[in-house]
Amino acid sequence: MRARWLGCFALLCAVSLCVGAGRMPWQQLATFSGDAWLTLTASRLPRLAALVMTGAGLSVCGVILQHIVRNKFVEPGTTGGLDAAKLGILVSLVALPAAGTAGRMLFALVFCLLASLLYVAIIRRIQFRNTVLVPVVGLMYGSVLSALAEFYAYRHNILQSMQGWLLGDFSRIVQGRYEILYIILPVVLLAYVYAHRFTVLGMGEEVASNLGLGYGATAAVGLLLVAVTVSATVIAVGAIPFVGLVVPQWVAMRRGDNLHRTLPLVALGGASLLLACDIVGRLLIHPFEVPIGLTAGAVGGVAFLGMVLRRAR
């Protein structure tokens, strides 16, 4: 099974390298110079790396949040994390206009972490009879944060700057404008190191405490990993919803909830899903392209509704 998944992933990577606005003269690559080599190394390879890291990171974020909240319908897009990161970036643009990418990411990280902590506190306080209500509360919470971000942008005349983070878009990715995404690699590795702890976390606070796990500390580590990934992603490529919802759910249905066993598949599935969405977006109106925020949102939205309807039966 894993060989088939790896084969599918490799095929998607190859197709992603071949698809572009212009025709690639592959025969020129043998000289390691010229326009073809420049296009490959400055544009297509960075875009491929950004897609793989973003997809893997967002899907791992989704599965961590699902174990912390103990609900299969949550991910950064349904817990207000993406909207909080956008608000943090807007605040950084006003408070510290000279701040670089790292400074803006720090603001986004703090806002995303605080918003996630508040969301978890709200969910723990409310006793839900229907699990579907948990992401509904998250979507409402995200709408409030999004409204605050738009109002803040309107008040400071930076609505135009905000447009870049409304929709995920990889068309701006070139060499020198995506390297911050490499911070996702240690996040994924740390998530794998903590995989057993997150699995126990998903069994509930009482079980986790009885097994000697520090529930609060482990949940805080998970939320911090999520905040780092979401802030880096929003800074580099914008908001991409539902990747962390679809893939973990699909893997859990086939392989169960033991994260030490399934986390590599979750990361691989997230990267593959984002590659497929990007390829579709680049081919739909070729040589132009549809932002990946739209294609991923459409695929994820349909899958989300399907899962809600399935759970409601």
Structure description:
The protein starts with a helix and ends with a helix. It contains 13 helices and no strands. With 313 residues, the chain is mainly alpha-helical. Helix 2 packs parallel to helix 7, helix 2 packs across helix 11 and helix 7 packs antiparallel against helix 10. The mean pLDDT is 87.
What's the CATH class label? Mainly Alpha
Helix percentage range: over 70%
Summed over residues and divided by their number, the pLDDT gives a mean of: 87
Contiguous low-pLDDT stretches (5 residues minimum) are none
Number of domains: 1
Order of helices and strands: HHHHHHHHHHHHH
Q: Helix/strand/pairing class, anyone? A: mainly alpha
Family: Belongs to the binding-protein-dependent transport system permease family. FecCD subfamily.
Pfam family, one: FecCD
Keywords: Cell membrane, Membrane, Transmembrane, Transmembrane helix, Transport
Subcellular location: Cell membrane
Chart the SSEs and their pairings.
Blueprint: H1 2-18, H2 34-69, H3 81-95, H4 101-125, H5 133-155, H6 159-166, H7 184-193, H8 195-201, H9 205-210, H10 215-237, H11 243-255, H12 259-284, H13 292-312
Family: Belongs to the binding-protein-dependent transport system permease family. FecCD subfamily.
Pfam families: FecCD
Keywords: Cell membrane, Membrane, Transmembrane, Transmembrane helix, Transport
Task: Please name the defining characteristics of this protein.
ABC transporter involved in vitamin B12 uptake, BtuC, mainly alpha, globular, 313 residues
